User: Fold this.
Amino acid sequence: MNVVFIGAYDTPDFGGINSYMLNLSKQLERMGHKCLVIRQSSRDYEDIIDAIHFVNIKTRGGMLGVFELYSKATDILCRGIYSCDIACYQDFMFAPIVGKKLQNKGKLCCYLQHSFACDNPKNPQWMYPVEILLTRLSLLFTKHTITVGGSIAELMKSRLHISPEIVRGGIFMPDANHKLPDNVNGIDIEKDEYLLTIARIDPVKKIDVLIDGFMKYKGCKKLVIGGNVDNEYGRVLVEKAKSDNRVIFAGPVSGNVKSFLLKNCFGYCLVSSSEGFPISLLEAMAYGKRCITSNIPQIKEAISQELGLWCEVDSADDITKAIITLEQDSQRIENEEKIRTRVKDNFTWEASACAFISAIEKFKTI
Assistant:
């Protein structure tokens, strides 16, 4: 089948929804299907990334840009410019209304939401009732809904009164023979010398709290932050950390550079206040890394209680204590193998692709 994923924005970080669409597409193609990704950008262009075809559509950005992307992508697919049997929009709000046009052309449309924008602390409180109302109205046009984890599915059940299919994010296990670079953007860091976080630079990721907790720690480890800091929140982070030369901003990271950082870090940090299903955490777990994490349901779903180093959201003190606990872990080797086994047994892109195909087969009957 020809599957078209529609959503996200062309960013140098290439995390989150971009990573989800790319890797799910790669696995589906390995299973004999054809995939295309259509996303927002500041300009119109096409690209091939890891053998997957990306069509980037110029939009104005923001909420209106999302609607514009869905409208333009739907029009392109209706005109038959690209082959499409299944269109998977990466949102519930607006998309089912726009997708009706494509459904009338005999295409199957489904809608996959990763998280709620209203849970991001950067958004005003009034956004919650607006988002929920608009999403409920949009869902009157479809029953073909998917989300990325059991915890977020429960949240959707309580807020939207739906029971979406679950297609979790996953990982491709690292290839031990794959050659990686010797350094990252000229940054001088050694194996096991640093803690790592790789994330969209956004208030929901609570990287400011991570920096606060790290700066209270007086040991010799460093903190490497991967992500594009060229935004308001990023500038706040750079200013906060400028008095501590142990904090290193690596800029946007992907591909071999990302793999290098994950393979060689001492531990991984993800202290968000909200997540969909944390793919970056799974990628760190695939290298056996112990993880300092906020104790939110979406993260607990990925890593078991015994293997996580848990922190309350917004608690810098908890983060400091977790770093010290990680340094003093006398069973580090055993724990790393348990972590690697957990992700290998439970969260692969092969399992994700099978779940996606199963959901599509179910949608064909309703």
